[in-house]
Amino acid sequence: MAGTILGILFAIFLIFLVGQALWGPLRLLLRLLFRVALGGLALFLINLAAYSSGWSLGLNPASAALVGVLGVPGLLLLGAFKLLFHSY
What we know:
Strand content: under 5%
Radius of gyration: 23 Å
Helix content: over 70%
Largest sheet: none
Structural class: mainly alpha
Distance between the termini: 79 Å
Number of strands: 0
């Protein structure tokens, strides 16, 4: 009986330790995914606003990650790439 209780307590302790070890990387990953989603939303809204002028930025995971991680400088970088490498 005492061995079973000790085994259950040890298992709970191990689950707690594994959870504590994985929380940091999981939190970092969730924060990164949230920023990428915000970057995609920003690109979508900019494309929506600039639709009438015929100017748009590509909305894909790489550009959303660039804007999400770098913010406004990433958006300006995408705009500069669009101006430099756009073929007419």
